[in-house]
User: Fold this.
Amino acid sequence: MTVRLLTTEEVATRFRTSPATVRYWRHIGIGPDGVRVGRRVLYDEAECDCWWQTKVAGQLAKGGR
Assistant:
């Protein structure tokens, strides 16, 4: 199994937001889990997908937008 790691910029593009927002999510603990590798933070693509599905399911359960 190959693990694809995404940069902060790639995660931002995937979720149609800015890299600053992804960094903020990480800072306050609500974004996908990332791992620091040297100076960069990398995100497992599968973990990002799982995080997004959980977020969407939570919004739908609340009757959110």
